Amino acid sequence: MRVPVAFGQYVPVSSPVHTLDAKTKMGLVAVFTVGVFLVDGFWGLLAIAGCVGVALAFSMVPVRIALRGIRALTLLLSFTLVAHAVRWNPATVTLVRIGPLGIDGQGLVDGIFFVVRVILLVVGTSLLTLTTTPVQLTDGLERVMRPLEALRFPAGEVAMMLTIALRFIPTTAQEAEKIIVAQTARGARFDEGGLIRRTRAFVPVMVPLFVNLFRRAEDLALAMESRCYRGGPGRTRLNPSHMTVRDWLVLLCASAVLIVVGLLL
Amino acid sequence: MNVPRIRIVAEIGLTVALSAVLGLISVWQMPQGGSVSLVMLPILLLALRRGLPAGLAAGALYGVLDFILKPYFFHPVQVVLDYPLAFAACGLAGLFASAWTSAAQEEKYASGLWRAVLPGVAVGALGRYVAHVISGLVFFSSYAVEAGQAPLIYSAAYNSFVLVSAAACAILASAIMPALSRVEGGGSR
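Above: the input entities. Below: the structure tokens describing the complete assembly.
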């Protein structure tokens, strides 16, 4: 059993979308969502699909990777389509009738509309994580949350926790794999038996993982304290990021297009 | 015992990292196709050791990280329910933290398991399950499916993997919590 160390969806290519500030892309995702929920016809969906297509082309992300998320939703989307289109013993005339089952024409059209809407939402929003590294996203999230500090929300500490998490995912994954390999060498089997037997096989893996977690947290807290970490306001960054004129232009123009499409179509 | 805030920050960060790693490991494939993972386990254990606020914070942050790593966005309410709120609900296990601490200080681990660990895992997992089921209902209502009680039944069945994961977490938590307390000399440090 191997623990995959690679995580996240980021596609490392050089593109105009990749170089946009994380905060700009978060804003665009928010407006995109509003736009998608405002459209109420197929022309609107077509316009939104055009916007997603343009963003995808500029992002240089392969279409195959952008559509990867849809595969996991096949069951959910099929259920949506069937629930809209299929009727049991319909009283009115339907498109096709097989025994007591009838396929309703209008229901089928509605089903296709909602399925296309979900696909556009998933592909459009995943462009954020496909073109932004988790570290950039965390940084953007901290800047989005910063106004909440006025309400005593610990935005700086939240960002620090996420930064620690991202920093230690590869280390923890390697440690987990090392313990799993060591236990396998001692004869442990993680792929045999039912749920209870397999779960019990993980006990010798989990105990050292958790003991190390709390020990590492103690060391980390000591190291942070020794470096005078106090969290909260006044903390500076080594590589601060800002929204440029280009970011504002993209955000304003794309938002205007999405809102107009949403309101008119 | 009062734990320094900076240590809580470090523990939450590392707990979120471990949850993300455990999310990559499948313990068991369910017959109908679902997969049982242990993402809840670190959040449940942190909540049982450090209390409700730390558990809720770790869960909500893991939800945010999970969305950053594997986003599925159908509806804004669904995102809140499926990511930060569902995992924050695992932090409800923290309601039983004081029961565990007092049992561990007296080294009555068997009593601590029945009074704190098992109810804590059950409440935390049930909270996550309810959040996912409501999210399923939001999905069907926002996509205008009119099928009577079917969406509730479908959503409850679809998310049943959470309850199977909860059983796995309960088995492991029962073994890990006493071991952690013994290593650290009893109770939460």
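Note for the figure: Chain A touches chain B through 71 residues (CB under 8 Å).
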